[in-house]
Amino acid sequence: MKVQLFIPCFVDQLYPQTAFNMVKVLEKAGCIVEYNTNQTCCGQPAFNAGFQNEAKEIAEKFIHDFDTPDYIVGPSASCVGFVKNYYPDLFERDDVKNQVSVITEKIFEFSAFLTDVLKVEDFNAQLIGKATYHDSCAALRECKIKEGPRKLLNKVKGLELIEMKDSETCCGFGGTFSVKFGAISTAMADQKINNALATGAEYIISTDLSCLMQLEGLIKKNKLPLKPIHIADVLASGW
Fold first, then answer.
1. What pLDDT band is residue 177 in, cutting at 50, 70 and 90?
2. How far apart are CA 231 and CA 239, in angstroms?
3. DSSP state letters, 83-100
4. In order of start, what are the domains of the chain with their CATH numbers?
């Protein structure tokens, strides 16, 4: 099966290794992975900041770059959720409406693609230690992802997955929310980290690097014994 790789801006710039690990896992699952180097942003930052016209212009480029019958797979439920849920409204009266309909059916967050499309849960990965899982708002509420990542993680050799209190509560990132409401955002991240630490976990895992970036800042600042890690990095470990 051929898949088109969608790498969000911040993953490309800040966490490229996660993108490489996602390719590694997809190829192990038998996929032929292609990457269009012309791709840029999906338009979500502009949209969330209230610049709808600018967001639409960026989204038009995304539609052109991913004009394909192949599945589109990305390591961010936030960006995938934006495309799936907001593109239809943005282009409701436009000529590209049919293209948008195809894209929203074909685009998947990485873990959901593994469990829901490929129907594969065990990648013979290995990570020794205790971990807890953070449900990102976008994964849970926009992409309806809940059990899939847990099924994948429960197949990782040596990994003990422990549920934390309020795993579905927001980490406080929320894109521009963390910039506009810094104190509230930090308090929310602090609560999430404390809940994770209370499980005795060494790792906090999620589908979204935006959440993990938010938590990592506070973890590093306070020198806490907790490592944020994307699910693609976990599934690519040990082989």
1. confident
2. 15
3. HHHHHHHHTTTSTTHHHH
4. 2-116 (no CATH), 123-235 (3.40.50.11810)
